[in-house]
Amino acid sequence: xxxxxxxxxxxxxxxLAYVAKDMGYDIYSIHFNYGQRTERKEKLCAKTIAGHLGxxxxxxxxxxxxxxxxGSSLTDHSQxxxxxxxxxxxIPNTYVPFxxxxxxxxxxxxxxxxxxxxxxxxxxxxxxxxxxxxxxGFIETFQHLIDTGTRDTxxxxxxxxxxxxxxxDILAIGRDLNVPYEHTWSCYQNEERACGTCGACHFRxxxxxxxxxxxxxxYEQEE
Amino acid sequence: xxxxxxxxxxxxxxxLAYVAKDMGYDIYSIHFNYGQRTERKEKLCAKTIAGHLGxxxxxxxxxxxxxxxxGSSLTDHSQxxxxxxxxxxxIPNTYVPFxxxxxxxxxxxxxxxxxxxxxxxxxxxxxxxxxxxxxxGFIETFQHLIDTGTRDTxxxxxxxxxxxxxxxDILAIGRDLNVPYEHTWSCYQNEERACGTCGACHFRxxxxxxxxxxxxxxYEQEE
Lengths: 223, 223
Description:
2 copies of one chain form a homodimer. In chain A, strand 4 (118-120), helix 5 (136-149) and strand 5 form a beta-alpha-beta unit. The first copy, chain A, has a single domain, classed as HUPs (Rossmann fold, 3-Layer(aba) Sandwich). In chain A, strands 3-2-1-4-5 form a 5-stranded parallel sheet, with helices on both faces. In chain A, helix 1 (11-22) packs across helix 6. In chain A, 37% of the residues lie in helices and 11% in strands. The first copy, chain A, is globular. The longest helix of chain A has 15 residues, at 39-53. With 223 residues, chain A is of the alpha/beta class. Chain A has helices at 11-22, 39-53, 65-69, 99-113, 136-149, 167-176, 199-210; strands at residues 2-6, 26-33, 57-62, 118-120, 157-159. The N and C termini of chain A lie far apart (43 Å). Chain A has 7 helices and 5 strands; from the N terminus they run βαβαβααβαβαα.
């Protein structure tokens, strides 16, 4: 069995690749550079995780055109990254328009070309601050798109086991699988010491604390 | 009104951009380089057409990662391009896996970032040799994906007026709109003189002949 795994270098995608490996899949990993501020660090983490997993392929894809398109503080470095704000009902400015459709389209092209059986993507609908392209309805529709847009002989299952999980659930799984979280990165803002205040840091730290686990990466600010 | 138009430099997408302009849209054009053999010529044509139309934006997107993924004679230059064969029921080897999903995902990202109302893509289900990502069901599903994967305040209509037309129908429209077909390119194989034998040439020449119009581009072989 072969699986294409989206490997950002964050804790979710890294845990998910360990899940796929544990299920017996050979891993074909894709890492995306879409001009995010912390790309250098994320790629280093993704490569390290890929090495630990013994992947069959590590494909780097340059999506920096997403920063030409603009519209997000994640890729437009003149915008400030929103700090996490529980009271906010709007989609935060780190949202990259339709990003996951871009990522999944490439993953599907690779999966069809390699005759893979599955694509693993670590989306979560709960913690992702309301990004529209992380919702279960989006994933269901994308599965339908794969079924209608590939050869009739191609059968690719989109696997999103984390979609209804919390980061705590994910950490519990990762702990059982011995995921080396010191080689993962979540912060949207910094590469050396995580900022501790952006949405990604907020959810990561909260999950480690709730699980009574120590987060092995360095932070700028103490909790 | 604003429209994102996919502009390959071929006769279909060029005609369609003229249709969008005629409907009153301001045009935001995207041209894709996905490592196809005839890219240099296609880009030249797309830029010329964009200039004639007075587009608001001409965005070049580098999708050469599709050739890293492989699986198509269009991007893998070690494979020979299939000649057109009417008896063949298989999908020809020029098929790039899930290509249109990649193109439409980027178009949707741009459309959402620019607050555009529509995306125009010149797909046809009839003449396209059975490519799975040109079928009406694929387009309907992609519309659904746009609706579920963008902000709730975003409303983008996927426009595919050519989907059930023949190339003859398209030429009839383009003739009325004075599309300068001398600045369009369809051949999959050559950049100086069209080969006349690949699928794209076959359908183009047949359409011009059936319409009793002269195709203004040069061919290697006489009909």
